[in-house]
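Hey team,

Filing this mostly as a record. A colleague (T.K.) asked me to run one chain through the structure pipeline before their review meeting, and I want the input and output archived in the tracker in case anyone asks later how it was produced. No errors, nothing strange. Just documentation.

Input sequence:
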Amino acid sequence: MRLPVYLLFIPLIFLSACAPVIKPQAGEFAGLVKPGETLAVTAIYNDISGDVTALGNRWRDEIEAALSEEQIKLKTRRDIGLIIDDLESFGPGSDEQKLWEAAGADLLIVGSYRLQPNAKPPQALLTLKLLDVHTAGIRQTLQLKKTLLPGWGRSEATVKGNQFQESVEIVVDSSSPEKKPSLSASLDRKPACFQAGSAGTVLVQSDVGTHIYLLNLAADQSVTLLYPNSRLPDQPLASERFSFPPLELAKELQLVFYPLKKGQTSSESIKVISSYFPIDFSYLPVPENTIYAGAKGGDIKQVLASLENARGWSEQVLKYWVGPECGE
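Output structure:
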């Protein structure tokens, strides 16, 4: 098993690594819509990451098209960024209910999906609920298996928004907001979907004088340290902008992406941390000239403990996909 991202030094450093059938099932919902009732379809999101993606939006579009063929009156509310996960946040008198009633929708189809990329063929489990806006009751629930079409990784990596963050990746600094450094980070590829062996760059903007840390979170939740490393030691930012690898070291250092397992498409992330004070991540491996097995990576729990004991820091998690489904 390999980690999904590799830092390629010269000398080298290494780091780790649907075909929906909507129409027949839409008929089941159509039969539950009473004459004169209007229906809306909300964003369909990844139930693990909370991401609203181009992949989920494609399914929503197909559901809307199938319902239109059934002569169902649809209310399109693409401008409302609401995602309703369960009925705890959607009930009589709730803000969500009021908004949809004001929009003129009597019924909602809400949905989420869970990817099963290592199934053969790759699949997604799509869960849809038909909700009555006025009573907050469920009229129907469907679970559908979808075969993922080639190139699905690029659609999944095209993120339109997020409903929540994975708790394993996010720790909230307990210091007051005014003591947190500013932080903006991104990968240089959109969507963030890399074929095995592709190189990329992490772009960071933060306050002068802060310390930057880049941690790779593999699919198996093991952690390695991208920056600082033996070639680039920990030191305060001299300017507001920082790129990794630095442009001036382009001939000596590359950030190269590989999936956790050869031939599979993996979801990974890079945690970017900006801190007013140094944070000790010396226990994390920096795999120079080595392919590390996942079990040899650092422990995410130890990383979270270090952050909980630190102060004056901000973070951003850059999610990406890597593997054969990220082809052009």
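Quick notes for T.K.: The chain is about 15% helix and 35% strand. Confidence is low (pLDDT under 50) at residues 10-21, 165-178, 291-295.
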